[in-house]
Write a structure and sequence with these properties.
The complex is a heterotrimer of chains A (270), B (236) and C (219).
Chain A (H helix, E strand, L loop, with lengths): L2 H10 L5 E10 L2 E11 L4 E5 L6 H8 L7 E6 L2 E2 L2 E3 L5 E3 L2 H8 L2 E4 L11 H11 L5 H14 L15 H13 L5 E5 L7 H17 L3 E5 L3 H7 L2 E6 L2 E6 L1 H6 L4 H12 L1
Parallel strand pairs in A: 3-10, 3-11, 8-9, 9-10
Antiparallel strand pairs in A: 1-2, 1-4, 4-5, 6-7, 11-12
Helix pairs in contact in A: 4-5, 4-6, 5-6, 6-7
Chain B lengths: L4 H12 L2 H27 L3 H15 L3 H11 L9 H26 L3 H9 L4 H31 L11 H12 L3 H50 L1
Helix pairs in contact in B: 1-8, 1-9, 2-3, 2-5, 2-7, 3-5, 4-5, 5-7, 7-9, 8-9
Chain C lengths: L1 H40 L4 H16 L2 H11 L9 H27 L2 H9 L4 H32 L10 H11 L4 H29 L8
Helix pairs in contact in C: 1-2, 1-4, 1-6, 1-7, 1-8, 2-4, 3-4, 4-6, 5-6, 6-8, 7-8
The chains are: A alpha/beta (270), B mainly alpha (236), C mainly alpha (219).
Bound molecules: adenosine-5'-triphosphate and magnesium ion (MG).
């Protein structure tokens, strides 16, 4: 990064990285998101909570370009994600080229890991840096080994995904996404497919990561303690709309909406 | 020289006239394959090891050698050891036995999908071996594989042209004779292709539908079982 | 008794070579076609999808022998004169290519969606997703199917004897014609020779079936 770019980036950090403007999404007849407005600053860690079916996954999948919004605009670094400006200045649906350029700033970790089963752990992590970022094999390997060591898997480079536990797989998936150095990382309930005793190790990795990177993060989670620890802001989603948001203290200790109170009490009871 | 409509229209009835013969041979061979295939399935599961092994060898051998050569064997070679058939019977037997090896695989997959508990239940109810097979196992093993069985009817149908090699007057043989007599092959052979498409494509669609339906049926059974379990849990 | 076989085998052996050549050439052609048509069936362009499915339905809906006769006897009407060998390879390749494309398509569609989504999240291009993630997994699933198709193809090669190509079957018929007393042994030898050619394929399929599930996401 050159000096000027750094300067721009720091100025940028005051503004918005990701912006949802009145975004709706329907699947057939069901309106899953009913007008979502959400801003995320560079480096900000946002936890997304809410009951099952409230649309959390859909929100982040749209940012990852896995799902297309029905209406509204999502922008990334000031540029619309699903639209591009045509030569006449009008917004037209984005093409694959535009989407690919936008995707380079976004990474995602999935509930079910989605590791590539036919590749070793190391190759899972180096494949995209080599083929997408164009790094040399050595550079990619260095980056990957570094990251795998950070998530505690430095000794598993040559193993295959099927030889790992769920918690280890998910840590590989995190490393695989992080080495791409996105500006925003999306986590979709990354511990809910894990055996309870493996949840901790994955959450620890994410916490450490959150502390030391300036990546923004959107974390969909049902782990309230984790949300409190890691998030700068918690957003509560209900029935396709943002019902309440604020700092962890505000949201978890002083919820104002009845629905959030009900949601939290259900969690505390469990 | 290109397509000659008059010629095509003139020869169409002659070729299409073979339809009853083709259908007859197809159905005949299919029945042979259904019955003989079941026999192979039983023989292969026999507790008498030499029989099981010999059946396995027979299936592998017949499956991996050309039906055309098998046809020659049945029609030309068997008579020299005193077993002779007319060409139609030879055709029906050859195709029937060839595809019985495929059907025995189909039966096998169906039978293997029947839960083990069913055998134990039949034993507990003191069913005889025959009763177990025909009252308990087969009624459950066959319905899921009906689409696969139907598929082999189509495969068999498309295999009938090889019977021209021993002079059975099916579609292609008719077309070939007409072609040779007029030095015009394009129209008659195209007509044969069309006849096959016309007869097999709708059947393929039907089988597809059957397949989807049987899968749906399967799923709804699974759902029913799940609901039953949940209901039990609620009660319990 | 043995003399008969000693007499027959050398006479039909040249036919076996033609049969194996046919098997190899048309398997290669079928494989190429299977991939092109199989990828066509899952293309994002509707035109490509419908064109390839017309091809597949056309060749699966009619008989191999009819296709072979069409290429050999009917196409000359348009000025395309095929040698028996070329007609055989073309018909076998197109026919089994159509069946093979179903294997390709089925395997590609069987790869869980999460694999595609993960590769989108890593910002791979469409072709990279196919080449680096989907195909390597799908090919493993295709192999047993391809093996079985190659056995079917081997059986199909015998039909070229009906368009005058001197393959194994044709040679057998010639020997039988010149010496009627050989009728029984000739066809026995033919069947055994086809089986011997098929054996490596049969064992190959066995092995592939055992390995097929390795390195693929389990549903
Ligand atoms: N591809 C789809 N087609 C149809 N409906 C869908 C699809 N994806 C999601 N939905 C529906 O949209 C609604 C919101 O789904 P979403 O997955 O975003 O919820 P969620 O908040 O992530 O829930 P959970 O906590 O269960 O993961 C649900 O009712 C779901 O059934
Ligand atoms: Mg979700």
């Amino acid at each position: 990064m050159g000096a000027i770019e750094k300067d721009l980036a720091s100025k940028d950090s005051l503004s918005t990285l990701v912006r949802y403007e009145n975004v709706t999404k329907r699947f057939g007849d069901i309106e899953v998101l009913k007008g979502v407005d959400l801003d995320i600053k560079p480096g900000e860690k946002v936890a997304l909570i809410g009951p099952s079916g409230s649309g959390k996954t859909t929100i982040i999948r749209m940012l990852m370009t896995l799902e297309k919004p029905t209406s509204g605009v999502i922008s990334m670094g000031g540029e619309p994600l699903w639209h591009k400006k045509s030569s006449s200045g009008k917004l037209v649906p984005a093409d694959e080229k535009h989407l690919r350029r936008m995707r380079s700033d976004i990474g995602m970790v999935f509930q079910h890991f989605n590791l590539f089963p036919h590749m070793s752990i190391l190759r899972n992590v180096t494949e995209a840096p080599i083929h997408v970022l164009g790094l040399s094999k050595e550079e990619a390997r260095e980056r990957a080994v570094d990251m795998l060591e950070k998530v505690g898997l430095g000794d598993k480079l040559d193993a295959y995904p099927e030889q790992l536990s769920g918690g280890q797989k998910q840590r590989v998936a995190i490393a695989r996404a992080v080495v791409m150095r996105p500006k925003v990382m999306l986590f979709d309930e990354v511990t809910s497919a894990l055996d309870p005793e493996l949840v901790g190790e994955v959450l620890e990795v994410i916490k450490d990561l959150a502390k030391e990177t300036d990546m923004a993060m959107i974390l969909v989670t049902h782990e309230m303690d984790f949300a409190r620890d890691v998030a700068d802001r918690i957003v509560f989603l209900h029935d396709g709309q943002i019902e309440e948001q604020g700092t962890p203290q505000e949201v978890l200790e002083n919820p104002s909406s009845e629905r959030l109170q009900a949601f939290l009490s259900r969690f505390l009871r469990n | 020289m290109t397509w000659d409509w008059n010629f095509a229209i003139e020869v169409f009835p002659e070729i299409a006239g073979a339809i009853w013969l083709v259908i007859g041979i197809t159905l005949g061979a299919y029945i042979v394959s259904l019955v003989f295939g079941l026999a192979l399935t039983f023989a292969r599961r026999s507790s008498f090891k030499p029989l099981a092994l010999a059946t396995y060898g027979f299936i592998e051998f017949v499956r991996s050698t050309p039906p055309l050569v098998q046809l020659f064997f049945v029609f030309f070679a068997l008579p020299s050891i005193g077993i002779s058939f007319d060409k139609y019977t030879a055709g029906i037997l050859t195709l029937g036995i060839h595809y019985s090896t495929y059907l025995s695989e189909v039966y096998r997959s169906g039978i293997e999908a029947v839960p083990k508990g069913q055998w134990e239940a039949a034993k507990a109810m003191n069913f005889s071996k025959m009763q177990t097979w025909f009252k308990v196992i087969l009624p459950q093993a066959l319905p899921p594989v009906i689409p696969m069985m139907g598929n082999y009817l189509l495969v068999l149908f498309k295999e009938t042209p090889i019977l021209m090699a021993i002079g059975v007057g099916e579609f292609l043989q008719e077309a070939q004779l007409i072609g040779a007599a007029n030095f015009k092959y394009l129209e008659p052979i195209t007509i044969v292709g069309l006849l096959f498409l016309l007869l097999s494509y709708p059947s393929a669609l039907l089988i597809n539908k059957l397949e989807k339906r049987s899968k749906r049926g399967f799923r709804s059974t699974k759902k029913a079982v799940k609901e039953m379990n949940e209901f039990e849990e609620l009660k319990g | 008794m043995m003399d008969v076989y000693v007499d027959i085998i050398p006479k039909i052996l040249p036919g076996a070579i033609i049969t194996i050549q046919l098997l190899v050439a048309s398997s290669c052609l079928a494989l190429v076609i299977a991939f092109i048509a199989g990828l066509g069936r899952v293309s994002r362009f509707a035109v490509v999808r419908s064109l390839t499915s017309v091809y597949v339905e056309l060749f699966r809906g009619t008989s191999l022998l009819v296709q072979m006769f069409f290429i050999f006897f009917a196409l000359p009407a348009f000025g395309f004169q095929f040698s028996p060998f070329l007609a055989g390879v073309t018909a076998l390749g197109l026919n089994y290519g159509a069946y093979g494309s179903e294997i390709v398509r089925g395997a590609i569609l069987a790869i869980p969606n999460g694999q595609t989504e993960a590769s989108i999240a890593l910002n791979m291009t469409r072709w990279q997703r196919m080449r680096l993630v989907i195909l390597p997994q799908a090919i493993r699933m295709m192999l047993p199917g391809f093996g079985n198709t190659s056995i079917e193809l081997l059986k199909g090669t015998s039909l070229v004897s009906l368009i005058t190509l001197t393959d194994l079957t044709y040679k057998g018929l010639m020997v039988q014609n010149t010496n009627i007393s050989y009728t029984f042994p000739v066809f026995i030898v033919l069947l055994i020779m086809y089986f011997v050619i098929a054996l490596p394929l049969i064992f190959g399929v066995r092995k592939l079936e055992k390995n097929a599930s390795k390195g693929v996401v389990k549903a």
